[in-house]
Input
Amino acid sequence: MEILDGIAAIADRYDGYVLDLWGVVHDGRKPYPGVPEALAELKARGKAVVFLTNAPRRAHVVAGMLDRMGLDRGLYDGIVSSGEVSWHHLRHRHDPFFAGLGRRCVHIGPERDLSVVEDGVAQIVSAPKDADFLLNTGPDDQRGPQSPDPYRAVLAACAALALPMVCVNPDRAVMVAGQKVICAGALADIYLELGGAVREIGKPDPEVYDPVLELMGNPQRAHVLAIGDSPHTDLAGAQAAGLDSLWALTGLAADAHGEAPDAAYLAAVARQEGVQPIAALRSLRW
Output
């Protein structure tokens, strides 16, 4: 597998770029070195840049977070988050799964994720017995993000009542300032083991790429490149959506494979994961 030092060599092959956020654009606290400059080079060449993230909160909340990191809004054209897609599903309920949900939910996750139920699209209740479904946005601040074990009791209580789960972040883990923490997907795995029904919203589901392409003006998919650090979500999702992908060796990839993995080793991992990125990328820089 070819390993690129930056994106300059391939930038003009594509008209649009779909970028993961956590682990590619930033580390959970600040942009990676060289990222703002790389985005500026893409925009100077007239490329469309849209962030696609499994963040379990609405796009306007994610934009505010990027503002606080100092990432200029002129460097990208829009944000699609799994939280935004989930909110649309809960509001419009055209999808059969969401059409069958009630309005009341038990929430597992921090209060900062409650933008997912803005405008009354769902009502949070405290007890599983009073709920119609389980809204899972990930670990909360009380039980922490280090292990899924503190969540087993509430998951078992919800499963015993056959509450369907809406998992608003299919990621199993993410890197935050160099530390690996669990995400909603890790709790969804336990719920499945308990026999619960789970609907995951976000990558790798190809559905979430449709609003991204709309923000880009619906270019041909062959002219769009997705960049991500996770084969399971970013690369598999792009492949399912008919897009080329580039494997960023930052974030989860750096944690799993080290700072300087061998090209043949990366090719073997990609084959095992069933994905075919066009190349690997040491980091998102020009």
In short: The chain has a mean pLDDT of 95. Residues 6 and 39 are 12 Å apart (CA to CA). DSSP finds ten helices and 14 strands in the chain. The two ends are 20 Å apart (CA to CA).
